[in-house]
Amino acid sequence: MATKEKKGGDAAAKGGSKSKKKGGDAQKARGPHAGAGKPVPAPRLREFYQGTVRGRLMEQFSLTNPHQVPTLSKIVLNVGAGEAIKQPKFLDSIVEELATITGQQPVRRKAKKSIANYGLREGQEIGASVTLRGARMWEFLDRFITVALPRVRDFRGVSTKSFDGRGNYSLGVKEQLIFPEINYDSIESTHGMDITFVTTAPGDDLAFALLKELGMPFRGNDKTGARA
User: Fold this and answer.
1) Residue of 90, 172, 80 lying closest to 126 (CA atoms)
2) Residue 77: which residues within 8 A CB-CB, separation 6 or more?
C-alpha cells in the first residue's frame, strides 16, 4: 500500500514538474535589471543641451529670446511588419524587441483599409511603433548616437537630405542588430525600422544645427554648419 502511494506521489510530482516546465517555456518572465534599486540619473545629453547647446544656437542664429531656441520634442520609432499578414507571431517578436530597445511598451498598428491583392484586411495588425518623450527620449538619442550608429557596417554618416521642411528629421535603420540590447542568438529574423526626430524648430536650418550640436554624425557637412 505504501509502495503504491509512493509511486502515485512520484507520478504526481513528475507531472507537476513537467507542467511547470512547459508553462515556463510558454511565457518568458522578464526580471528586473541590474540597477533597478538605484536612483535614476539625469540624462547627460539633456544636461549638455541645457548647458552648452542652447547658448551655441542663440549665438549662431542671433536669437534674443530663449524660447526661440529649438529643442527635441519627441522621437518616434516605427516598424512595418508585412509578414504579420501570414505569420501573426512575427509581430510579437518585433514588439518584444522594440520594448527592449526603448524601455517602453510599443503600440500595435492596424491597417486602415483592406487591400485584396496583399491579403490585407481592415483592422489587421501590421506594425508597431513607440513614441519617446522626456528622459527616455534623451537617453535613447544618446545611446543611438554614441553606441548604435557606430555599429553600422561601413558607416560614413547619416544623410542631410531627410528633413521634411518643418524641422523634423527621419532616417531608416536596416537591422535592429545595431542596438546592443538585442541578442543575435535570440532573434528569429532581422528587420529595419524608421526613426523620426521631431523638433520645435520652424525650419530645417535650425533643426540641422540642433541635431548637429547634439552629436548627430551627418555625412558631408562642413565646419560652419551649412547643409551639404
Assistant:
1) 80
2) 98, 101, 102, 106, 129, 130, 132, 193, 194, 195
What are the backbone angles phi and psi of residue 62, rounded to the nearest 5°? 55, 50
Q: Is the pTM of this model over 0.85?
A: no
Burial of 128 (0-12, 13-18, 19+ CB in 10 A): buried
Q: Which has the closest alpha carbon to 77: 103, 106, 100?
A: 106
At 63-100, the pLDDT tens digits run: 999 899 999 999 999 988 766 566 667 788 888 889 99
Task: Determine what percent of the chain is predicted with pLDDT higher than 70.
Answer: 70
Q: How far apart are alpha carbons 99 and 186 in whole angstroms?
A: 15
What sign for the dihedral angle of Cα 89, 29, 79, 148?
A: negative
CATH architecture of 71-213: 2-Layer Sandwich (3.30)
